[in-house]
Amino acid sequence: MLKVLFAAAEAAPFAKTGGLADVVGTLPRALVKAKVDARIIVPLYGDISEKFRSQMRPVTSETVQLGWRKQYCGLFEMQHEGVTIYFVDNEYYFRRKGLYNFYDEAERFGFFSKAVLDVIPRLDWVPDIIHCHDWHAGMIPVLLRAHYCRAPWCSTIKTICTIHNLEYQGIFPRSILGDMFNLENEPAATAALEFYGMVNFLKGGLEFADFISTVSPSYAQEIQTRYWGERLDGILKRRSDRLVGIVNGIDSDEYNPLKDKALFAPYSTRSFKGKVVNKARLQEVMGLEQNPEAPLFGIVARLVKAKGYDLVHHVMDEIVAEGAQLVVLGSGEHQYEAMFREASKRYPGRVAVRIGYDDTLARRIYSGADLLLMPSMKEPCGVSQLIAMRYGCIPLVREAGGLKDTVESYNPETNEGTGFTFTNYNAHDMLHVIRLACATYRDKKRWTVLMKMAMKAEHSWKTSAKEYVELYRKVMEADFHVSK
Question: What is d(CA 201, CA 133) in angstroms, rounded to the nearest whole number?
Answer without folding.
Answer: 11
